[in-house]
Every structure is written in C-alpha cells, then in structure tokens.
Amino acid sequence: MTLGLLISAIIDGLAYAMVIYLIAAGLVIIFGLMDILNFAHASFFMLSLYITITLMSLLNYNFILTVIIVTAMGFLIGALTELVLMRPLYGKPTAQMLVTMGLMLIIVQIVVVLWPMGLTFPATTGIFRETIKVLGYRIYIYRLIVFMVGIVVFIALEAFLNKTKFGAQIRAGTENRTLAEIYGIDVKKIFTIAFGLGTALAFFGGSIVSPWFNASVEAGTSFTLLAFAVIVIGGMKSHKGAFIASLLIGLVHQLTAYFVTELSFVIDIILMIVVLLVKPEGLFGGEAE
Amino acid sequence: MISFRQLMSEVEKNLGFLSTILFMFFLPYLIGKAYTVSILSVILIWAILAISYDLLLGQAGILSFGHAAPFGVAAYVTAILLLAGFPFLISMIIAILAAGAINLFMGIPVRRVKGVYYAILTLAIAETIRISVDNFARYAGTSVSLIPGYPRFIFSEAFLYFCIMISFILLVLVIYAMYDKIKKRARRDLFFYLSLSPYFIILILSIIGIIKMMSGNRLVIITINFYYLSLITFALSYYLAKIIVRSPMGSVWRAIRDNPIRAETIGYDTYKYSLYALFVSGAFAGIAGSLFALTTVVSPDSVLSATVTLLVLLSVILGGISTLIGPVIGTFIVQYLRYSLSTIPILSYLSMAILGIIYIVVVIVFPYGIMGTWYLKAIGLRRKIRRKLIMILSSR
After folding, report:
1. A233/chain B closest Cα distance in angstroms
2. Is residue A198 a contact partner of residue A38, using CB atoms and an 8 Å limit?
3. Which of A67, A52, A100, A45 has its CA nearest to residue A219?
4. What is the full DSSP assignment across A43-62?
5. Which residues of B touch A99 (CB under 8 A)?
6. Where are the domains of chain A?
7. Predicted ipTM?
8. pTM of the predicted structure, to 2 decimals
C-alpha cells in the first residue's frame, strides 16, 4: 500500500460518498416526512443514468442542459408518483412501502426492456475523462467535480431546509405531522413537493454521475442497499446525519474495494447491521430536525 | 393410537382441504402435459414458502425482507449434503433445522429493532449472505452453483405406487366422510346439496383422472414422482401450519401481532414467542428451500436473491395476509403468471413489470388480498344469495 494509492482511494471514496449522499438525501426527506421507505428510490437513480445518456445524444452533447432537464423530469415523476400511488394510501406507511417495491419492479423491468445492453457515456474526451497524476497514480478530475457538487448540494439543501419558509414547513412536518397540520400547513401539498424534491435529487445525482458509472441495472440494486445503510446509520430522519453517514460508508466502501476486495459490500452492510443492533435510532437520530 | 371415529371426525373437519389434495393427486392425468406438471410441482414448493412467510407476517406480525435467507440456506445445505452422498430425508431435516436457526439468528435483535428497521435489517443480512457467497466464489476461484439433481427414490416405480396408494386411501376416506355427512344431516334441503356440490365436482374430476391414469396416459416417471413428492410435502406442511395457527402458541402470536404491549402485560414473554415464530417460519421456509434445491441449479441468484422475498411477499399480499389459504392461492396466481408470461414472446420481457402493476393495484384496491376480501364480504354475499334463492323458490 503506497501513499499515492491511498490518496487515490480516499478521493474515490469521497466522490463515491457524494453519489450515495445524493441518493440518500431524497430518501431521508421522504422517510422523515411520510414514513415511507422508498424502495423505488435507487431505481429512479438508475433510470436517470439511462435517461441522461440517451438525452445527451439528442441534445447535441450539452451536458449541463441535460442535467437540468433530467432534474426537472425527476421532480415531475416524483410528484406524479406521490399523487397517483401514494395519495390513496395515506396513513398506511407499510402499504405505501409495498407500493414502492412494486414500482421498483416496474422501473427495473422497463429499463431492461428499453435498454437491454446498458449504455456507455458518449463523451470520451474533455473534462469527463481527464486525469491528474498524484504520486504516480492517476486520478479522474471528474470525480473531484462530483465531490464538489455533492458538497454544494449539501450546503444548498441545508440552507433550504433551515432558512426558507418551505424548508421550515418540511421540518415541521417531519417533527410532528399533526401539529403542523393544526398550525395551518397544507401537509398534503408538502408531501407531494417533498416527494418530487427527493426524486429530483435522485435524478440529479444520476445524471451527474453518469459519466463516471455509465448505465447498468446493477447500479440500481447495489445503491438501494448502500443508501439504506446510509440512512440507517445516519438516523432515518436526519439530513445532516445522512451526509456524515454517506462520507463514512463511501470511504469504507472504496477503501475496502481498493485494499480488501473480498469484503467489499459486505463490510458496509455489516457496519449498518452493527449500528442497527447497537443504536437502532441511528448515530444521529437524536438530532433529527 | 387414534380410533377410527377420531380419524373420521378429523377428516370431516378438513374435508375441503383433503378433497382439494385428492383432486391435486389426479390433476397431472387431467393435464397430461409434462411441462405443466413440472411447473405445478415448483409452484407447490413456492406455496410452502408463502405459508412460511404468512406464519411470520400474518400470525406473528413480523415484517421481514430477508426471507430468502432461510430458503437459500436450506437449498444450499441440501445441495451440499446430497452431493456429499447423504440420503435425502436426512439432508432435508438438517436443512430445515439450519433454516430455522438462521431465521432465529436474524431475529435475535427483534426485541429492540422493530417494524421497518427490522425489515431493513433482515434485507441487509440476506444480501450479506448472498454477496458473501458470491464473493467467496469469485476469490476462491470455485463455482458456487451446485446441481444436486433428484435423489434416487424419485426414479423408482415403488415411490409412484406408494403415492397412488395414498391417493386411493384418501379417495376412500373422502367418499366415506361425505356419506357420513349426508347420513348425519337431518334436514337435507337444496342448500345442503348446493354446499356439497364442490366436493361432488372434485370427486367426479378425480374419477376422470383415475380413468385417464388407468387408460395408459402415463407421464414421465420423474416428473410425476417429483410432483407427488412436492404435493405430499405441501399437504403435510399446510396441515402442520394449520395446527400451529390453531394451537395456543398461534393465538399468542396473534395477540402479540395485534397489541404487543397488552400481550406483555398479560404476562406472555413476547420476545420468546417472536423467536418461536421466527424459528417455525424459518423451518417451513427450509422445507421449501430443500425441495427447491432439487429442481434448479442452486446459485446465489436463484435461491438467495431478494427476488425470492419479493415474489413471496407479492403472493402473500395478493392472497391475503394471515389467511393461510390466501398465500397459497396468491402463489398459484403469481407463479403461474410468471411462468406463462415467460412463454409469450412480447410479454416475456415485461413479466416482472406486469406483476409489479398487479401488486400495486392489489395494495391500493384490495388491501386485504383475495381471501381477506372474501372473508369480509362472503357472509353478506352468502346471505344475499340465500335470500334470492328462497324468493325464487317460494314464488314458484
């Protein structure tokens, strides 16, 4: 193990952590507000990988425009899902969870039918593929960008939740739904918008990392568990906790992937199991906002 | 030893179940196609798994997303032991115990970790097992796909004759029970015979099956033997599950499911009873797993993946939670759709998506599933039909 390899692994881990964070943030918002463990969330992420790469070729390889369109699409899909599938089942979180499982099945199958071979990101040059050398090891610049984007999203979301009126309403709904309703907050509207926001985050994450991961079905299934691990460790309702847990899981995941390949994935899940056993409410569950 | 009277009263109590099993015994000859029969035997195995899941979710109220773990572990244990040369029965028993043990192990934290958290925990443990087996294969450089194949008695004629003998004993018992029922009944009106009509239909169909069997419509012996093996195992498992559900332990489970705090206050050790439920459910999943090992290539993807849990969950929800017969019906629908859709060219790619849509519709429209809705509506419906019939009869 050399220093260069270690640095490379850490940077990879940090970038990976941000990918997980972008998925987990939406999950945390949805679970915090509606008590729904959204099984379809990571499949939304996977769907957006495919949509981004497909749109790229239609939009003349304008990456930023694609990301914006895909994110907006994510918001619409999320809000629509909430309106059509979740609204009839208000007050039955288990049934809603089961519905999201069905949705996951449908999304995965649709992806398999539409894009049977998986997709590769089209751009092979430019910022997406450039590397810098650190102590003899190549590091992709794009992964640093992903890391930066993740940090920016975290700060923006934190500011949104803490500083804006709408964020305050979301926090109020998370804290005590009935009380929020008594105080005149339209909780149903909040639910729809929050579900849309969460899905938009997953779509945004997917389109941002598509140059890194390309598109495959496995991406969805593996991230489902990782994102669950993150929200369990972070405390199911805490946005900050999800961020810190993402960093932990991302680093552990990539470090094991680099150095102890036999244990990759297993170690993340064991981490989560240990947290569930020792502190079921999560490491940061206490400071849920 | 139980007396003949006791046996007959037990038969009469379970007449519906026994006559259905009787019908299933002769069903292969009515179908006549080996492919359909082999699918039916796999569906019966899935039905055992659905029963095991219903015992856990429907009776004890524990939501687990890791039901693939006991199933897969049992399949692996069976495969390994069979390949090592153990007889089937012994490897099955060891596999069942192993499956119960793994479910018990997953359930150790059930006292603190509840609801959704327990669901995630079990999903995580099941996935850990799957990924570990996968990783083991990759880094040890060996294959973890095992093909145990059928045990030797599946190929023997003796087993077939044994099964046919059982079916004839069953036939005699059912006919005698029906005769007894009719004889005992004082008022034999139209409704009485109407309520017996399903049994008559089943008997007639069985007799047609027997005639077809006698007239030389023989299927491949392996197919039919394996079908009988899974049918007998299914019948025994279902009967056992019914006994467990009706036992005092079953009612404690339901008490815990409905209100854990009350059950604890009355004085039941809820943790202990939850662990019992986990072990029993795991053992039933083990029965299914060890039979399933004979039918396919035992690989992490086929027996340990989350898809197994998903399919079972879907069947249980579709059939109706905590009805025991519901999950069996749900399994027949789900698995039959799954197999039949895979033979239609256009739909084969979309089979899981179609199942997903059915699933969502069922959860939203029929939250109690097929049998749950039936139990809720049946009494009113029956009364309504009866009233209509009386009106028609009296107007004449």
Report:
1. 11
2. yes
3. A45
4. HHHHHHHHHHHHHHHHTTT-
5. 359-360, 363-364
6. 3-287
7. 0.84
8. 0.89
